[in-house]
Batch of 2 targets.
Target 1
Amino acid sequence: MSSSDQTRVQNINLTPDKVMHKLVSLAKRRGFIFPSSEIYGGLSSCFDYGPLGSEMKKNIKDLWWNSMTRRHTNIVGIDASIMMNPMVWEASGHVASFNDPMIDDRTTKRRYRADHLIENHIEKLRRDGKTEQAEKVQSVYEALATAPDMNRALYDLIVSQNIKAPDTGSGDWTEVRQFNLMFQCAMGAVADTSNIVYLRPETAQGIFVNFHNVRESSRMKVPFGIAQIGKAFRNEIVKGNFIFRMVEFEQMEMQYFVKPGTQIEAFESWRAERFNWYIEELGISPEKLHWYKHDKLAHYADLAYDIKFAFPFGIEEIEGIHSRTDFDLSQHQQYSGKNMEYIDQTTGERYIPYVVETSSGSDRLFLALLSDAYNEDVVDGEPRVMLKLSPKVAPVKAAVLPLIKKGEMGEKAEKLRDELSMSFLVQYDDAASIGKRYRRQDEIGTPFCFTVDHQSLEDNTITVRYRDSAYQERIDMSKAVEFLAVKLV
Ligand code: GAP
């Protein structure tokens, strides 16, 4: 690209709050994400992926799936059912411990996470420059972890700090109660407690209960992994931020079974691999990714890190990497009465494997990529909105644009579209000026536009226009498929 091409594009800096607002609007207008059941007023924190959104999400999931199962000869995939025998959730600890501390406001009838109210309060004190008070409340809050009556201690702190609801300013609090996050439904014709089943709150348990099925059928030897992509459900209080936190979402999880004593080495290796995946495979800039080490661990973990991403609304988790010890397999052995041990055929050793888990959310990653990609600039004096998505993630890989829609030019362009469509999702657009058509494609992140023009009729070449730089070059039309294939590696 020459320097004169680069100066054709001038960037516009946007504030983070503007980015979210514009993203939500673009997502709906261009068919990425719609509010669920919108004609009935929607349903809180539920969303539908539109034509472009579902293509983009599929690309994300395919990239994850291939990076796990195709690139590792010792990882295989499964697709377990969402509803499982309820004993699974007794054994996993979710029935007893998968709770959030909730507090209700009697006046407004709204419900809040008690711990979130306190954390927001501490953040606000810091923002207001009341650092000393913030540190004091923080240390009291941290000490609550060992309080004999956690709910009472949370309530006392909320009341003593005079914490109000952030959205209404009211503070007519009930006591704090623990609410289980699992959705329940009744299976069969009669609704009573004997036939309660849960919608899974994580995909991982479908993997643990299939440990021996997969190991035996695929002749896997420890260390090996099982990967899965699927829906999970959590009855959470959702604060907004579009699709960041939903009650129905999708996870991409991999459980890696290792010999006890080797889990830290495996953990560190997966930690590095997963972090690099976001940079190398998805093109996320490293400065937007952060590590967070958990001090407060989930009931199953002895070591846990999150990969966090700098969203426009703050730095938040996109993936958890957990050392789950032998907790899950041991629990399933105890509750099912089935032996979950692995026997090493070479040494004769018997043990319950330890597990390192990588757990990413495809919806959250979708939002991370969309917010990372949102860009406004000016090209040749014309403002434009562009999604600077990696070509691998972009829903449409190329657009075919005939300069004139009728006659030989139109026919040539249609032929090119048909050839490309055998391998890639392409769009054909012959309406409006060529400049407008480029803008339409920029806005949905299409990385390349192929234009069929007068010269194409003479020498069979076409123009390739690159989205980010607006740079153009000519290639032979017969090389278009190969051109895209190379760009998508
Ligand atoms: N099996 C471990 C597990 O479920 P987690 O940290 O609770 O761990 C893993 O969840 C990932 O799932 C998160 O990093 C996030 O990307 C996604 N996730 C969790 N809850 C979510 C929600 N309510 N909405 C959207 N994504 C969610």
Target 2
Amino acid sequence: MRIGIVCYPSHGGSGVVATELGKELAERGHVVHFMSYQLPFRLDRFQPNVFYHEVDMLAYPLFKYPPYTLALINRLAEVAAGEELDIIHAHYAIPHSFCAHMAREILGDRRLKVVTTLHGTDITLVGSDPSFKRITRYSIEKSDGVTAVSCSLSEETRRVFAVDRPVRTIYNFVNTTRFFRQADAREVVGCPPGDCRVLVHISNFRPVKRVPDVVEIFARVRREITAKLLLVGDGVQRREAAETAGKLGVRDDVIFLGTQDNVLPILSAADLFLLPSEKESFGLGALEAMACGVPVISSDAGGLPEVISHGETGFLAPVGDVKTMARYAVKLLGDEAALRKMGEAARLRAREHFDSSLIVPQYESFYREILGETPGA
Ligand code: GMT
């Protein structure tokens, strides 16, 4: 198949999933064309069957708001026609799915199919806002196929948008043959083994991630156990997180690593991953941690209970209940055998339920259905 993928190139789950999917599809012999305003950060090395088309745009003084989406539509139409794409797979409804529909309108080519993958905030925050709701519903209804990354998000989409289109759940994935705990990672992050416990949080530091809660959980753990907190990412809650750490007297043990392209060495150094989000459709960072044998303590928001098995691969608690989350963390970190067992279970769950070898074929057969190549069409 000849597949166009349009996604956000920056750090964030939807771009990671889109990029990893494209790479896996290319390895399986499909031709994949990425389109975005910048090279997706995980598209970091040459690979056969993978092509990248940058969306460039005329800067003109009249434009108060540079119309990126129009330039994107233009590029999508150009690439779809020039490369004879079968499918445009839009990751994140706003604006990618809408732009794919507009590109198809311009081409007047009903043979070209549009698949939309909903990732979370495109439904729960952005798409459900009145300023984008109609356009999001339109994008879902006009798609030839719609997927969501968890059952929770599929249900929320149906509830919020009351759409007739079926929404297929295809879980996010991790390639566990490439994503596993690296040796000597502790030294890399400056926390030699045996020295102390390492807790990690990775996100875009938006309010929905509740980064100050991460710090508060850590401060409670720190009262009982020698530990460091590695915070990976950047965003509006960074300052508040630093202030919280200062107020709680743990500023020296909280290390802000900023945005990182390669999280594998950091996850490999972790004893525990924290994700106390307000909303979380899936929690790709948690899955990548699990693939590295790291248990996760998270809120029970959205799709997190579908990823983390409570009491087996980590622990879940209600949003904002930092006391309970900290209690779970202290108990687990204080019991080496239990920590090891849970880490092994986490890795096993990632391999048995969310490995790319299980999930990518689901996208392939979904595409085939949509192209009318299988009986499910
Ligand atoms: O976490 C974010 O806010 C970034 C966002 C994105 O689109 O990059 O993540 C969403 O998509 C990820 C990939 O499917 C999911 O793993 C995240 O759970 C989801 N974030 C939220 O629902 C808040």
